[in-house]
Design a protein that fits this description.
The structure holds 2 protein chains of 2 kinds. By secondary structure, chain A is an alpha+beta fold. Chain A has helices at residues 4-7, 10-20, 78-89, 123-140, 212-225, 248-255, 260-264, 325-331, 364-369, 420-425, and strands spanning 27-43, 46-64, 67-73, 104-105, 144-162, 166-184, 190-199, 230-231, 233-241, 285-288, 309-314, 317-318, 339-340, 349-350, 354-357, 373-385, 391-403, 406-412, 414-419, 427-430, 435-436, 441-445, 448-456, 459-467, 470-471. In chain A, helix 2 (10-20) packs parallel to helix 3 and helix 4 packs parallel to helix 5. Chain B has 2 domains: 2-230, 2-Layer Sandwich (PmbA/TldD fold); 236-459, no CATH class. In chain B, strands 1, 2, 3, 4, 5, 6, 7 and 8 form an 8-stranded mixed β-sheet that branches. A 6-stranded mixed β-sheet of chain B has the order 12-11-10-15-21-20, covered by helices on one side. In chain B, strands 9-16-17-18-22 form a 5-stranded mixed β-barrel. The chains are: A alpha+beta, B alpha+beta. Strand 2 of chain A pairs parallel with strand 3 of chain B, so a sheet runs across the interface.
């Protein structure tokens, strides 16, 4: 397939940027995106569907003060692109400049080189992975009643040109293998288990790092472990979070509140808190786009700024925000390479990449042993936050009672609910066993979904409200 | 109106592209195929603090081709309608089908080989939506914010307020000769203010979404309601863990309806992956509860004469006086489960058909939300849920909630940082009040409800 630069020649990109600035404005960019999405789904012992989606389009953005004009086109004819640039330009009224912008390619790091790209891997090999996982899950236990699997991969190329003369081109692939298992016991109790993962990884990832057998066994184990689960105890209690995917709690409880658009508009409760204590001194939180091959990693963000590592909270003190170009200009800060978008049909917003809590000093066994009565959260489902009052909520997908420092009965239907800063001030122990999630996170904001990573050591949280049905 | 406009021309263009693709698919070896293609306009303006946040305008298109080869199914989509791209779509869809397993239940639906143009007959296309100027929409967005500010000086910050509208033209063409088209409009207004007092920030959203401009709540009413809802949350606190009656505002009842209907997907029923799998014709709720799916609702945002596979749709009860009356099937899941298809396939150009509802209504009972509050000695009124809620496999419900605490028939104080939880069927069977105040903002209409007892977890 020809490179993006052949689809829209440099001279046309330069012209489009100039047209975008022709009515005035402080900044403009043109974002060209081509993606190839493959999806294979298995259910009831066989491959149900195999599908492919291709998309190609251009988004043009113009900033005038804090106002943004945005237009996009799935038609790459020069005439359609010129019209698109002029529609976006209409946001500005100050009278523009007409001199052409000459572009200079910015050098990018290579954090996720993948050869061959997943779109070039024959579908048959992806089918084989799913079939192997299905066999493994069924063989795991006779109480397994349903196995559903999917392999989804994305091969995305982007090319950006800005009014400050930056030209950046990146290839961002993504793979994800997933299994869902339903188990049923003799009493008719039905429980679900989920496992899988991936990232900006080559297909060979599934030969070693995450085999389909391992993922399918884990999904089956999770479903079976919850059969006969007890009602969750309701009310405030001590909670221990498992390492890895529990980082989703950080993502919701503090991450969103540190995105610069909410800070700039003072709609986040963290606005004006820089340098203040916002968490227990055991808590250090980092957003890091530079990790190799991770789901949230970026060589470059979606507005031609290099992906970076930034410390958000250090030993409980708020150190920084996630900043996109617009907030950077308005707030007098530097962009942290946090401008991301779902596709060419969307204007960028400040977003997280891979967000995690740094490891602490406690032995994870010691953390568990310290709890007389409480709840252990082994796996979470979805979560949501209200960034203004800091309220967050999480579905506990796999949880156990802790009694006298030991895990006992599984619990069902538990939800964690809290207020971000309060919850982080109640972190009383942080484990030395840091882990990242297996590559499963997707974050939604203003209707845009982007892939993210999270991470966490084992953590003890005191006095968090558990929503359940069992009133003690 | 559609036929007389620019969108009428777009419709014929889409039909031409879709029919060409079916010929290509056959040439590459497909036994049967169908194409869904759409063309639409997209407009959204968001404002905050008197300035535009983003103004987005575009037209977009796309198509999806489903093919059947030796009982195997392949699917391919593209937004690139150049002939080179379209030539690859048919070839790739057929190649992908050969990777899937044969399945005797695969196939197109038995749609009549006729042409049905839907839209005008159900009054789904409002020329006024297409005629709104950008200036008007920007002015409305600013007016939403001003109206919210006008109710209280503590409404002083905004996440955003906005107006979005669109026109969409869709066609479905099958290799068995069915031609289906639909034109419709949609418009939505929302206001998301933040009430501030000392260090406390409370955000709320109020909105409306309709197919016709005339059916919208006024700009002033939406803004004012958003502002009042944010202000009344100031001072919110936890309540202690307890079992109490829980009242749902109409839009929160609509969330319960969405959860319930999500568990009626025939595919999940067949896989016994829903808690309702064994409950057909059983009493799952109080007799006062009835839920109807009406694809022919005039001006409905979910209305359509035909489903995503071309079958003619009809109005049906899903819950009839507390009894589970039916599941939702597309043609594949109906064949698999050996039941009659219910013409419930939903589909966009970018997706394969799957079963879902059109316009749902939880039928009204008696009385207003105010009267239900007045009759409650102690209750939590839920005004906004946080998180997902229903586990449709097990039937357990647990959700974060913001709301208002009721004592002796009066609102006492706002509540946050609590969850409400229970067994979903038990919840439906202990509904003790269904209001007459059905509100429809989007595709689900529902009144206020009260559940006799749920577990509220807090302090």
């Amino acid at each position: 397939m020809s490179s993006l630069r052949n689809l829209v020649p440099l001279s046309l990109l330069e012209e489009l940027v100039a047209l975008a600035m022709s009515k005035g404005g402080d900044f403009a960019d043109v974002y060209l995106e081509r993606s190839q999405l493959n999806s294979i789904a298995l259910e009831e012992h066989k491959i149900r569907t195999a599908s492919h989606s291709s998309s190609l389009g251009v988004g043009v953005r113009v900033m005038a003060g804090t106002e943004v004009g945005y237009a996009y086109s799935d038609d790459l004819e020069p005439k359609a692109l010129r019209e698109t640039a002029l529609v976006a330009a209409a946001i500005a009224h100050t009278g523009g400049r007409t001199e052409p912008v000459s572009m200079k390619t910015i050098a990018l790091p290579s954090r996720y080189p993948v050869v061959p790209v997943p779109d070039a891997v024959p579908p048959r090999e992806k089918v084989a992975l799913l079939m192997r996982g299905e066999v493994a899950a069924r063989a795991h236990d006779s109480r397994v009643t349903q196995v559903m699997g999917s392999f989804v991969d994305l091969t995305k190329e982007i090319l950006m040109a800005t009014s400050s003369g930056e030209l950046a081109e990146d290839a961002q692939v993504m793979c994800r293998l997933n299994f869902t298992v339903i188990a049923m016991d003799a009493q008719g109790d039905r429980r679900m288990g989920f496992a899988g993962g991936g990232g900006r990884v080559p297909f060979a990832h599934y030969a070693h790092e995450l085999t389909p057998e391992a993922a399918a066994h884990e999904a089956a184990r999770m479903a079976l472990a919850q059969l006969g689960a007890h009602s969750a105890p309701a009310g405030p209690q001590t909670v221990v979070l498992a390492p890895g995917w529990s980082g989703i709690l950080l993502h919701e409880a503090v991450g969103h509140g540190l995105e610069a658009d909410f800070i700039r508009k003072k709609t986040s409760l963290y606005a004006g808190q820089l340098g203040q204590r916002v968490a227990s001194d055991l808590v250090t939180v980092i957003d890091n786009a530079t990790l190799p091959h991770r789901r949230g990693s970026l060589n470059v963000d979606d507005e031609a700024v290099l992906g970076q590592e930034k410390v958000l909270i250090e030993n409980g003190i708020l150190k920084g925000y996630m900043v996109d170009r617009l907030s950077a200009r308005v707030m007098g800060l530097a962009s942290t390479g946090s401008g991301r978008r779902e596709s060419y049909q969307h204007a960028p917003l400040p977003r997280m990449t891979n967000t995690y809590m740094a490891p602490g000093k406690h032995d994870p066994k010691e953390i568990l042993a310290s709890v007389k009565r409480g709840l252990y959260c082994a796996a979470f489902g979805g979560g949501q936050v209200d960034i203004s009052n800091g309220n967050f909520v999480f579905e506990v997908r796999e949880g156990y009672l802790i009694e006298d420092g030991k895990l006992t009965a599984p619990v069902k239907n538990a939800t964690l609910v809290g207020v971000g800063p309060e919850a982080l001030k109640n972190v009383s122990m942080v484990g030395s066993d840091w882990a990242l999630d297996p590559g499963i996170g997707t974050c939604g904001k203003d209707g845009q979904s982007v892939p993210v990573g999270v991470g966490m050591p084992t953590v003890r949280l005191d006095g968090i409200t558990v929503g359940g049905t069992h009133v003690r | 109106m559609c036929a007389d406009t620019h969108f009428g021309t777009e419709r014929e263009t889409l039909l031409h592209v879709a029919e060409g693709l079916l010929v290509d698919a056959k040439r590459h070896g497909a036994e049967a195929a169908d194409v869904m293609a759409s063309h639409g306009t997209d407009f959204e303006v968001k404002v905050a603090d008197g300035a535009i946040v983003t103004l987005t305008q575009a037209t977009a298109k796309g198509l999806g081709l489903r093919v059947l080869v030796d009982g195997r199914m392949g699917f391919c989509t593209t937004s690139d309608f150049t002939s080179a791209s379209l030539a690859r779509v048919a070839e790739r869809a057929v190649a992908l089908a050969r990777e899937a397993a044969p399945d005797e239940h695969n196939g197109l639906a038995n749609a009549a080989p006729t042409r049905i143009d839907s839209g005008d007959d159900l009054d789904l296309f409002d020329p006024a939506v297409t005629e709104l100027s950008t200036e008007t929409k920007i002015a409305w967005a600013h007016a939403l914010e001003r109206s919210a500010r006008s109710v209280d000086p503590r409404v002083s910050r905004f996440r955003d307020s906005g107006v979005g509208n669109g026109v969409s033209v869709s066609v479905l063409v099958t290799s068995t000769g069915a031609i289906r088209t639909q034109c419709n409009t949609a418009i939505s207004l929302w206001c998301n203010p933040i009430a501030c007092e000392r260090d406390e920030l409370q955000t709320e959203v109020w909105y409306d979404a309709k197919s016709h401009v005339d059916d919208l709540e006024t700009v002033e009413a939406i803004g004012q309601r958003a502002g009042r809802r944010a202000v009344r949350m100031l001072g919110a606190r936890k309540i202690k863990t307890q079992q109490v009656p829980v009242i749902f505002e109409p839009q929160e009842s609509a969330g319960l309806v969405a959860g319930l209907v999500g568990a009626l997907d025939g595919d999940m029923v067949f896989k016994r992956a829903t808690f309702l799998a064994d409950k057909l014709h059983n009493l799952i709720a109080v007799p006062a509860l009835s839920i109807v799916d009406d694809p022919h609702l005039r001006r409905g945002l979910g209305s359509c004469r035909f489903d995503g596979e071309g079958l003619e749709t009809h109005k049906r009860a899903l819950v009839d006086q507390g009894k589970l009356a039916g599941f939702l099937y597309d043609s594949y899941t109906a064949r698999k489960a050996s039941v009659s298809p219910t013409a419930s396939a939903r589909r966009s150009w970018s997706s394969l058909p799957s079963a879902g509802p059109f316009n749902l209504t939880l039928l009204p009972g008696a009385g207003s939300l105010a009267s239900i509050i007045q009759e409650s000695r102690k209750a939590l009124l839920v005004t906004r849920g946080l998180g997902r809620g229903l586990n449709s496999v097990s039937g357990e419900y647990s959700r974060g909630a913001n709301g208002l605490w009721i004592e002796h028939g009066e609102i006492v104080h706002p509540v946050q940082e609590v969850t409400i939880a229970g067994d979903f069927i038990e919840m439906l069977q202990t509904i003790d009040r269904v209001g007459a105040d059905v509100e429809r903002r989007g595709t689900i209409g529902a009144p206020s409800l009260r559940i006799a007892e749920m577990t509220v977890s807090g302090g």
